[in-house]
Amino acid sequence: MSQPLHRQLGLTDAENDRIPELIGRAPSDAELVMFSLMWSEHCSYKHSRPLLRRFPTEGPHVVQGPGENAGAIDVGDGLAIALKIESHNHPSAVEPFEGAATGVGGIVRDILALGARPIALLDSLRFGRLDSARSRHLFTRAVAGIGHYGNCIGVPTVGGEVSFDDRYEDSCLVNAMCIGVVPAGAMLKAQARTPGNHLVLIGNRTGRDGIGGASVLASAELSHDDEDKRPSVQVSDPFTERKLMDCCLELAAAGAFVALQDLGAAGLTSAASEMASKGGVGIDVDLDLVPLREQGMAPAEILVSESQERMLAEVAPERLDEVVERCRRWELDATAIGVITTTGNFTARHGGAIVVDIPAAALTDDAPTYAVPVDPAPTPAPTPLDRIPMPRDLSAAWMELLGRPNVASKRWIYERYDHLVGANTARRPGGDAAVIRIPGTGTGLAITTDCAERHCEADPLGGGAATVLEAARNLACVGARPAAATDCLNFPNPEKGATGWRLQQVIEGMSLALEALDVPIVSGNVSLYNESPERLIYPTPVVGMVGLMADASASVGEGFTGPGDLVVQIGSGPVRLDAGEWLGDATGAPPAPDIAAEVAVIDLVVRAATAGLLQSAHDVSGGGIAVTLAESALAHGIGCEVSLPTGRRPDEDMFGEGGGRIIVSCHPEHLDQLREMAGTVPIAQIGTTGGRTVTLRMGEAGAELHVEQIRDTFESALPKALT
Amino acid sequence: MTRIVVTVMPREGVLDPQGQTVHGALERLGFDGVGDVRIGRRIELELEGSNPEEAAREMCRRLLANPLIEDFDIQVEGT
Amino acid sequence: MTRIVVTVMPREGVLDPQGQTVHGALERLGFDGVGDVRIGRRIELELEGSNPEEAAREMCRRLLANPLIEDFDIQVEGT
Amino acid sequence: MSVAVVRFPGSLDHDSAVRAVHGLGGTAELAWHDDRALPAGTTAVVIPGGFSYGDHLRPGAIASRSPIMRAVVDHANAGGLVLGICNGFQVLCEAGLLPGALRPNATLSFVCRQVTLEVSDGGTPFTETASGPLSIPIKNHDGAWYGDPDRARVVLRYQGENPLGAVDRVAGVANEAGNVMGLMPHPEEAVDPLLGSVDGCVLFRPLVAA
Ligand SMILES: Nc1ncnc2c1ncn2[C@@H]1O[C@H](COP(=O)(O)OP(=O)(O)O)[C@@H](O)[C@H]1O
Ligand SMILES: [Mg+2]
């Protein structure tokens, strides 16, 4: 009746046949379990690895590219900044609080594995529409979990993004990004080096935790069909994580670690085999030494448990006492569970017997890869304007748009996050990008996460580029020059339909934009199969990007700072309503970005901000220029009067998206200098700041909202949608 | 009105960080011989209606407990 | 080992925001006839020693309860 | 002459507190929870914010029973200045050095927000030089002060709003002598124009001068 074990574990017959070829004999059950997890998409990227090679990953300041737990760039002052984004989508759908919380914990340990001190977190979220009770539940609990973990470990959550769409009703997305700082010469790798050194497991005890292993351990051969032997949901323990951070950073600073690695998906199996294969050495682990939280755990269970808040370190024999002693001071378990060997094998013992003995590289480097089918979807055509109803009352339409949860203020979220801890937050959430001072320096680090998912659905090549360009624009708006990026590719099943093609196109579009910006991808993560029989998510390639500015205190805000300034539009690419926030779906054809032109706009705004010419800067994104101007006015309660003499239909003028535009304000005496700096970049004065209303003129038509009206709607929309 | 006491405890095998921390604190305060410590919630409800126990059970399922990580128990304490 | 159950509840008269919120949530879920809701902590301890009840009382005085806002109760559940 | 900043497992704001002291020209030293004495030359003590012991059981409860706290109590009884910030305020209440207790916020959620504080008692060493309201952020989950405001020395109140649901809008209290003070807002996050406010300096200056 039942499937053969390898199929239950998710291995194909061909994959199963490959294992004996690699190890020279039939695998034991425990070994088969290890292969099944290490060769899963989650651990091996078998459907995405070939495509990921397209990304530009090099640059003069890259000190760690993809392949380690996180990437890193040199930022001067003898420091490197580490960055990485990761998904915890499935666990969050099962148990949103713990799933999202442990997602934060996991990404923090990736940064910690470099010996870097985590200094900022961001979260990128996608849920179904908030009129669904289930989506409200998932969203509010996920936000609570992210806050609980980040707040408790003392890493500020300084930004993120969220949107709500039916496409995410069955598969919500919870991506978390972490930034860390490490002395440039002291960065650690997860590369085991010296035979004879100890392998030390630090942190929480090992239990039957782990959703990733659920399918595995459900197999009758491995458990005893015993209710309480089932894998349990990972419960977050941020207090232990904080101690783990403090303790590991002290030990890293003291030079006590030769290598460091976090335990994430596939637990000890993945951590130890990656350390061994990267270092070209072997590892011999005694499972009887692993501190357990539960009695009677089978070897396979210990090997793949995904218990949280654990790190694995390579420690030279003469430093072992120091490591154990320091961990005791922090009330953490630290146990030498094995040694580095010369064999190249991953060996595990249990009850005196060898239960696993396979080449470590067979688990990691020999994982299969597959080319996904790249069957293009039909190219969509722009929606003719006469098929889009023109709003009768433009002011009312504008107000309605500002009150949608996707557009409205996200204060309800970020006030639940400690975005200040560490006393380095120079620009708080709510604007285009957060700015934090790199600790101990005056340098500003701007950070944002972005994704243009509807654009990616309609036109994946353009959408991939648009996603990267939007992130860069958000950095430019605060005055930072984009420096490096990390990405999390959230997609449906790439083996079906046009998803494989979309994945390839999105990567191509992202790469084109990254190359034009000269921004490398230094780390990333892939989450595939986000679909249900009813719904596929949009292709959602979340980009986390960091930028630098010499002086953290000189950042620019999105809000007008006083009356009498000029409102200036920089950039003037094509604008359309298709796939935008106003229409709220992915139909039609959004304008493909003119990458070179958009990069020129970004470059100009960075230079102008650095020269001190800008009073404010805010990009045109979801909802068009009408939303941009409303937000700029709202920030300090200063209105504006703007005319958009474009000859387009007024609703397209107001709500149309695209064009790579940034709206800045400047003192009148700076306009000439700004024009001169612009050279051939299109720049146009479109209005002036002042008053208490935001007034728009589009030829004959007009719209006007009072700043207080905007505030009421904009600030209350999300809380209202949640009650 | 019937008084109902609902007890919600972390499930067997599920990590209980709070119990773990309190265990350590008791030991540091010099209390010897402390074995397992587990911490959960006690919810006291006053309920009207003909079948308060069944109502409480439904409340646990829908709100008061998280079946993935918690077990609940219901005691009717009288009226 | 003796199993001891310590119950710590908000004192009468001390605002219990958690209880109030759960009360509101239950009503929104359509449960009628919900009177007072109070939420406290249940701490299950395993204790060695000759007088575990007294030990638990001392633990409550020194750590487990804050007399300003909480009352505690101790039940010996057996060995 | 040095400010001792006490560090527990789970403390988060000790480094920011040290930096605030340094920024005002003072010297500061970390004190470890497990030590029995404050560093030699300690003239004032800060119990910083964070989640000592993960806020398990009750915020501040476990930290308040750690060995270093006896030395802090002695220091306070001898008239020395002690400032407890956020989790430090919770610790001082749990230790019995300050009246009242901190309960979960009325919103039952964490709240991170810039607030305006009015100084209700300018007579304590901490508030002697305060003139006018202070703009300082709050960030906590259990910050609603509970107690009898008529029998406590209320030093700070939230202006206009009561964001956490504290009794009588209380944001900070002192002991009778005024040398021990606790507050939920975070003055160490308001000592630098980069952070948007320097109003927190008022509360730190007396520590440096002590
Ligand atoms: N999930 C979130 N977590 C933290 N901050 C958020 C989140 N969602 C939005 N924000 C804050 O609100 C700002 C505005 O959001 P959004 O309108 O999506 O920005 P943009 O269009 O500039 O990318 C973000 O830059 C961020 O600071
Ligand atoms: Mg923006």
Provide structural commentary.
The complex is a heterotetramer, with one copy of chain A (723 residues), two copies of chain B (79 residues) and one copy of chain D (210 residues). Chain A is of the alpha+beta class. Among the domains of chain A are: 178 residues, Phosphoribosyl-aminoimidazole Synthetase, Chain A, domain 2 (Alpha-Beta Complex); 168 residues, PurM-like C-terminal domain (Phosphoribosyl-aminoimidazole Synthetase, Chain A, domain 2). Chain A is 34% helix and 23% strand. Chain A contains 24 helices and 26 strands. In chain A, a hairpin with a 6-residue loop joins strand 1 and strand 2. In chain A, helix 18 runs parallel beside helix 19. Chain A is globular and about 85 Å long. Chain B has one domain: Mth169, Chain: A. Chain B is elongated, with a radius of gyration of 16 Å. Chain B is built from two helices and three strands. Chain B is of the alpha+beta class and 79 residues long. The model of chain B has no long low-confidence stretch (mean pLDDT 93). By secondary structure, chain D is an alpha/beta fold. In chain D, strand 1, helix 1 and strand 2 form a beta-alpha-beta unit. The longest helix of chain D is centred in the first third of the chain and has 10 residues. The model of chain D has no long low-confidence stretch (mean pLDDT 97). The chains are: A alpha+beta (723), B alpha+beta (79), D alpha/beta (210). Chains in contact: A-B, A-D, B-C, B-D, C-D. The complex binds adenosine-5'-diphosphate and magnesium ion. Adenosine-5'-diphosphate binds next to strand 4, strand 5 and helix 16 of chain A. The site of magnesium ion has 4 residues of chain A, from loops.
